Every structure is written in structure tokens, then in C-alpha cells.
């Protein structure tokens, strides 16, 4: 199928992009890498009147160290996250996103804004306690990654807001493990565990509408409990649904196994 007709605007600044979104009054959409939006348009699951292309906006493709974190510009491609060496956890997670073609176009801001419950970056952002930077005509605001994601493909982003960057803290220790049927598929279960500021967070993708924080498991990990106890607590916190890819029981069993694997792969920060 082909998309419904739309107007196209190539923004040259964040201000121009948010002005265009405001003018479209709910009928505008940002296009970044297009890897999720274009299929949605082609299937006519969305029919925006205006597409606002942010790819030429200067300053959104940078990776900058800020106060114990890396500030990842909204337009940083997944492939660049794989290549960079300053944040090994992000590099490992981004390696699992789709295939080379998708990683070379898809963006960090696009993945966070699209909020697919099976996507890797929202899970890692939740485990790290990341901060999302958002701009609109009214100014700027920040949101924790956990609050930003409100449901499957749902966020707190208003119609006239754009994500400009995500601050991804550098963990002291971390682990990442994913189970997918074929290389490049979305994960059936994705586990990210990160120790930031002396406390562990465990986030699990694929077992609910948003990345699940396994808080009891986190407390056990902070207290030095053995990995099998932590993994069992994480699996108990998950309430996945059955779908064509896997039953709820299977996903829960995979949650326990992949929390164990993530903790088994626990890596020290490379200073
Ligand atoms: P776009 O497609 O351009 O936009 C997606 C949505 O986000 C749109 O609603 C758009 O309006 C909004 N948006 C984009 N940028 C911003 C912004 N800065 N501010 C506000 N709103 C914005 N992803 C995974 O995580 N894991 C996978 O395994 C995976 N496999 C894939 C396999 C295939 C075959 C395909 C086609 C895609 C796959 N993806 C996967 C999706 C891919 O990672 C996308 O790149 C990503 O989800 C969205 O990024 P994008 O830059 O392409 O966003």
C-alpha cells in the first residue's frame, strides 16, 4: 500500500520543527529514520497531514559526555551507538536492533518516541534511569524514561513536542541479554540490568506494554542475593500476555532464564 497524501516540511531548526507541529494542530508527525513510521504510513495506520523531517537539524546527531552520562542526540543512528566505545551497554543493546539497514537509519530519538514494548533502547533507558529531553514552542522539559513511556506505542509526548536528546547514565556494572527467534527480530524477552550510583535497576521488555521494572529483584540484587533468587523474583513480577509469538508461561520462563543470563554477563564499566 501507499501512504495517504501528506505535506512534507524539512525543518532546519528545532524551533521550526515544533512550530510546524503546532501549526498542524495534532495532524503533524516527526519523521526521523522512518524505520517505524514509514511502514505505519504505508499501512495507513496513521494519516498525518504534515510530515516534519528533522534529519537536517544541526546539533541533534551529537554524543556528548555530561555529568556521569552520555547525552545522545535524537538523530544518533543505532549503528553509531554500536560503534561508539564510551558506553559499552548501549553498544551491546543497539547491536540487537534489527538489521544493518535498519540500524543505519533508525535513531535513538525515534526508538524512544515510538515506544515499542519490544524495542531495546527503551528497556536500556529504563534500566539506566535515563532522562529524555523534550522541546516545544513553550520551552523545554525533561522526563525520566520510566515516566515517558505510558503504554505500547504511547508516551507523554504532546502533539507539538519533539525529543531532542536522551541522557544515558554510565553504569558501574551492567548486563544485557535478549531472546529472539531469529537474529534481527524484535526480542521476545529483553533484559537490561544496570548499577548506577550504587543501586541496581532491572528492566524487562516483551512482558508488558512498557519496560517492566522488577523492583523486588532490584532490592535483592542490591542486598547481594544470589542470581537465581533475583531471577525468580523478576519472573514473578512479570505478567506477560500470550500472543502468536509465545505463550505467557513461555515468556515468564524466558524472563527468569534471561535475567540469569544478563546477571551472568555482568560487566564492569570500562573507564
Ligand atoms: P521514525 O520511524 O522516523 O519515527 C517513529 C515514531 O517516532 C513516529 O511516530 C515519529 O513521529 C516519532 N519520532 C521520531 N523521532 C522523534 C523525535 N525526535 N521526537 C518526537 N517524535 C519522534 N527496533 C528495535 O528497537 N528493535 C528491533 O529489533 C527492530 N527491528 C526492526 C525490524 C524491521 C524490519 C524494521 C523496519 C524496524 C525495526 N525496528 C526495530 C525499528 C527501528 O529501530 C526504528 O528505527 C525505531 O523504532 C524508530 O526510529 P526511527 O528514527 O526510524 O523513527
TrEMBL record:
Domain (FAD-binding PCMH-type): residue spans on this chain: 1-173
Keyword annotations of the record: FAD, Flavoprotein, Oxidoreductase
Alphabetical list of SMART domains matching this protein: CO_deh_flav_C
InterPro entries: CO_DH_flav_C, CO_DH_flav_C_dom_sf, Diverse_Substr_Oxidored, FAD-bd_PCMH, FAD-bd_PCMH-like_sf, FAD-bd_PCMH_sub1, FAD-bd_PCMH_sub2, Mopterin_DH_FAD-bd
Taxonomy, superkingdom: Bacteria
GO MF annotations, alphabetized: FAD binding; oxidoreductase activity
Name the record gives this protein: Carbon-monoxide dehydrogenase medium subunit
Amino acid at each position: 500500500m501507499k501512504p495517504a497524501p501528506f505535506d512534507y516540511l524539512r525543518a532546519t531548526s528545532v524551533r521550526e520543527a515544533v512550530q510546524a507541529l503546532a501549526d498542524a494542530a495534532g495532524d503533524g508527525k516527526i519523521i526521523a529514520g522512518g524505520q517505524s513510521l514509514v511502514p505505519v504510513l504505508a499501512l495507513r495506520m496513521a494519516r498525518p497531514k504534515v510530515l516534519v523531517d528533522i534529519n537536517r537539524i544541526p546539533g541533534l546527531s551529537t554524543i556528548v559526555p555530561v555529568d556521569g552520562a552520555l547525552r545522545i542526540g535524537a538523530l544518533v543512528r543505532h549503528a553509531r551507538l554500536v560503534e561508539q566505545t564510551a558506553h559499552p551497554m548501549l553498544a551491546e543493546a543497539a547491536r540487537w536492533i534489527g538489521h544493518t539497514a535498519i540500524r543505519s537509519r533508525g535513531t535513538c530519538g525515534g526508538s524512544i518516541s515510538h515506544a515499542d514494548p519490544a524495542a531495546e533502547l527503551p528497556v536500556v533507558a529504563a534500566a539506566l534511569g535515563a532522562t529524555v529531553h523534550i522541546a516545544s514552542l513553550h520551552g523545554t522539559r525533561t522526563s525520566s524514561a520510566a515516566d515517558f513511556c505510558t503504554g505500547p506505542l504511547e508516551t507523554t509526548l504532546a502533539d507539538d513536542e519533539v525529543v531532542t536528546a536522551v541522557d544515558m547514565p554510565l553504569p558501574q556494572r551492567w548486563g544485557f541479554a535478549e531472546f529472539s527467534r531469529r537474529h534481527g527480530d524484535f526480542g521476545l524477552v529483553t533484559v537490561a540490568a544496570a548499577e548506577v550510583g550504587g543501586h541496581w535497576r532491572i528492566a524487562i521488555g516483551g512482558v508488558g506494554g512498557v519496560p517492566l521494572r522488577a523492583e523486588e529483584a532490584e532490592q535483592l540484587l542490591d542486598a547481594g542475593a544470589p542470581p537465581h533468587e533475583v531471577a525468580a523474583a523478576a519472573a514473578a513480577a512479570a505478567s506477560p500476555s500470550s500472543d502468536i509469538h509465545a505463550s505467557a508461561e513461555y515468556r515468564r520462563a524466558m524472563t527468569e532464564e534471561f535475567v540469569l543470563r544478563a546477571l551472568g554477563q555482568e560487566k564492569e564499566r570500562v573507564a
